[in-house]
Every structure is written in structure tokens, then in C-alpha cells.
Design a protein that fits this description.
It is a single chain. The chain contains 19 helices and 13 strands. With about 450 residues, the chain is an alpha/beta fold. Helix 1 crosses helix 17 and helix 3 runs parallel beside helix 6. The relative contact order is 0.18. The N terminus and C terminus are likely disordered.
Amino acid sequence: MHDLHDQRHLLGGDAEAAGALRQAALPLTGASTDWDALIERIGDARVVMLGESSHGTSEFYAARADITRRLIHECGFSAVAVESDWPDAYRVNRYVRGEGADRDANEALQGFQRFPTWMWRNRDVEAFVDWLHGHNSAHPGQAAGFYGLDLYSLHDSADAVIGYLDRVDPPAAARARRRYGCFEPFTGETQEYGRAVVLGGTRPCHQEALTQLVDLRRRAGAYLLQDGAVAEERQFVAEQNARVVSNAEEYYRTMFADHASSWNLRDRHMADTLDELLVHLERAQGHAKVVVWAHNSHVGDARATQMRDGGELNIGQLVRERHAGDAVLVGFTTATGTVTAAQNWGDVPRRRTVRPPLAGSIEAVFHEVGYPAFLLLGDADPAAAEVLRQRWLHRAIGVIYRPETERQSHYLTSRPGRQFDAIVHLDHTTAVEPLDRREGEALTEPPETYPTAI
């Protein structure tokens, strides 16, 4: 447990730590000025990363939406990039830009069908997407897009590449079908592809996926002659989908053999996608500022957590390394309430009670601060900064919540002041409301059994 036992907060120092933080905390009351200090801290940064300590907490989504609205309105941010698959998010992007056939936000979010659907098909995201559509309609010169950073959509992305080539280069589409046909035995069971390769039951499709990506990029010049800016956008989207296929193939092969390698591959993919998006938006619109929505475990700098000890990195670390001084990382925490999470991978979601934070955790100290909600800026106060530089337990709930093994399943150690530039604590929070209900489902507390996923 590293040096936790040597820290004063485990020896009766929690009250002293909470007192120091109380002096620096900026209460959040629901006023229009709540986020002024954070907006000032963000300044001219090009990348703002907004985290969450669970995937199923309504207030995290709502707070991120409030901050993002201000960043779009006041600071010229041109995109929201989220921890989701590229094809599903791009369908939303088309809707908020007034394109495509979707009639409303709910319909635009119907692409999110892969577990956990409630991460993006929920009432809070629906409200934000509806707002973004309205904002873009009213301010076409300040339109902001919606994009996905993740790599799980191997088959959907392959279909999108083929669909693009069917329009611009049918012979190339035929070649892509042959190459991606390598994955055909595992349609809908992508993890089984990785398992079969590791066990020697099938040959890897790595070369086919990589060759298709290289071929698409090599022919880009010819494709871009066809429709100007429209062609450039379509080519960019197709290349991102081809890159998803190539990286997803490697991810599924490594996930059964080396957790750290597969984690790092995924977060490098997300960081690379963010960089590609920044370049594309700069070229297309003349400026590029992007807000990222993802879990704290991805947003917070891994070098300040026990992830580093296991050889893991994350997108927060990579963004700080690649965009030094030009990125702001914001963590979100809670102490008690409810959360939407599954009992097992693939199960229907349930509303779970979040247990009070463990002693020695930063959430326990935040709870003792005494404010229902507050903002901490890491460098605002020397005494508070010293508390946040210490190593604390830090809770992370993914799409699965296992309270009966909470210490092992949901806590890591971190130095929050180095992990984040700012922290938002919402002491009591409520479960996010999914847009969908399966027949016979009641969103209620199940028996306490069950893996975490973030």
C-alpha cells in the first residue's frame, strides 16, 4: 500500500487535512458564477479534460455539460471528444451539425448499442446533445462537434471504411472487403477473436488491418480531388475508422496476454485520436480547442497514481507530455449516493447505493470539508496544495460496481494535486437515468455481488 501508513491522515490527521481544504474550497451553489474560477484557470488552454469517478453518476454528466457550454460559448471550444466509439459518436456529430437523418437527440444516440449503453444513452447526455444541436443552429460560425476516442468498434468501423470506399473507389472497396473478411468468423464476438489468436486457434488479422489503413492513406490525394472540403471530412472519418480497426485488432490480441499493454494501447489510441482531431479541426475551421469527457482513470495523470507502478499510462499523462502548458485536467469525485452500474459484464443496469468512502481516502476528507459541492484549484492555496500532494486512497467505479470487495476492486492510490489541475467534489450524487428500459427491468438495488470496468 506504498507509504499510506506513514501519512498523517491515517494517524488522526483527516480533520486537519479537511480544514486546510475548507479554506481553499470554492463552494458550488448552482449560481451562474460557479465555474468562473475554473474558466479563468483554463485560460487559453487548447485541451480541457473533464473526468468522472463513475460512469453512472448523473451530476458528473450535468456538471461537465455546464462547464462545456461555457467553454463553447466563451472560449471558442470547437469539439467535445468522449470515451466512446468513433462511429457512434460521429452519428451524434452529424446530428448536432444539422446533417444526417436523425430527428432528435434520442434518435441520434441510438448508435450506442454496445454495453454499457447507459454511459451515453442517458437523460443527461440527451439534454446536452439537444443543447449542442440548438447552439450550432443558432451560431453556425461557432459550431462545435461531438466525437469518440475509443477503439472497441472494430466491425462497425470496418463497415464504415467499406461504405466510404463503395462511394469513392469500388475496386478499393472490394479489396477492403477481402482484407476485413479475416475478421468475419468473429462478427459480434470480437473478444473471441483475441482469445482464438492467443490460443493458436486462428491466425492474426494484423497485416490485413494495417495494409488497409496504409492503402487508404496512400490514396487520399486522389479521393480529395472529388468534393473539396466535403471530401476531406469524409476521408478523415474513413481514416479514423481504419485506424480503429488496426488498433482494435492489436488491442483484442493483447488483452488476454498483458493487461498493462492493452490498457496502454487503448489510451495511446485515444490520445492519438485527440491529436488527429485537433489537426483536422485546425485545418478545417482555422482553430481547434477540444473538451474531453472520460473517466478519472483516463483523465488524471497516471504518473501520480499507482498505475505508474504497474507500467500503465493514460491519456491524461500523454496529453500533458504532448501539450505541455496547454492542457487542464479536472477530476470529479463523490462520497455517497447512488450510481447506475451492472452486476456483471453485459447485465442490465441497476441503481446501486454507493458506500461511504473508506477512511484514508481523499473522498472521506472531501466529505469532512462540509460543503455539498465545491471546486478546488490545485495551486490556489499552499496548505491545501500540500494536502493534495500527499498519497491518498482514491475511488474509481466503472460500469460494474462491486461493493463487497470495494477496497480491492475500486480503490487505487494517488496524489490528487499532481493527478489533476482542479477537482470538483459533489458530496451526494444520484444515479444516471438510462434512456432505455428492457422489458421487465426494474432499476433497483440487486444483491451485492459482482468486475469493474472503466
